[in-house]
Structure formats: structure tokens, C-alpha cells
Design a protein that fits this description.
Elements lengths: L8 H31 L8 H60 L5
Helix pairs in contact: 1-2
């Protein structure tokens, strides 16, 4: 077992920002696909092969777009929650450090 565990808050914050950027890029791509799909009537064509394809895969395509929307939202939530959590830990660490410093100074004990 490790004697010490740590996370570099600056690195973590950069990764959460990067995760948000990925979510933003994915959302733009998804919006483009949805927009194109809305403009094209019968995207699989209107012949028998196209209707069979639509019947077999149309709902799967719609479900996939819905899942990508959920992924975009989840990535955004994870990014925001992660960044907030790291910020909260840093703030708490600073607060706790100042309390420990004040205890050491008021008791007259030497600081190490």
C-alpha cells in the first residue's frame, strides 16, 4: 500500500478542461449530424433496399444519436463536477493548513 497518495490539482484541472473541450467538440459534431439528418428525407433512399435498411437500422441510428447526446451531457457533468471537487479539495487543504499553522503558533511549539 502506498504511504502517500496525491493528485496535482493543476494537472487535474487541465484534464477536466480538456474533457469539457471534448464534450463541446462532440456536441458540435452531433448537432451537425442531426441538422443534416433533419434536412434529408428518406436518407436510406426510397426504394425497397432503402426501406428495408430503414426498417432494420433506422431506430438504431436514432438511438445512437440519443446516446451520444447523453454522453455529451455526462462528459460535461463529469468535467464540471471534477473541476469543482478538485477546487474544493484545494480550498479545504489551504484552510486546514492555515488552522494547523495557527495552532502551532498559538501553542508556542516549534514548527517543523
Amino acid at each position: 500500500m502506498a504511504e502517500e497518495t496525491g493528485v496535482d490539482p493543476e494537472v487535474a484541472q487541465r484534464w477536466f478542461k480538456r474533457l469539457q473541450a471534448v464534450a463541446n467538440d462532440l456536441e458540435v459534431a452531433l448537432d451537425n449530424v442531426v441538422e443534416v439528418r433533419a434536412r434529408i428525407f428518406e436518407p436510406w433512399s426510397d426504394d425497397q433496399y432503402g426501406r428495408n435498411f430503414e426498417k432494420q437500422f433506422g431506430q438504431l441510428a436514432e438511438d445512437t444519436l440519443d446516446q451520444v447526446k447523453n454522453i455529451v451531457a455526462s462528459l460535461g457533468d463529469l468535467s464540471g463536477t471534477g473541476a469543482s471537487t478538485v477546487g474544493g479539495f484545494v480550498d479545504r487543504d489551504i484552510e486546514n493548513g492555515s488552522v494547523v499553522d495557527n495552532v502551532g503558533q498559538s501553542s508556542g511549539s516549534p514548527r517543523h
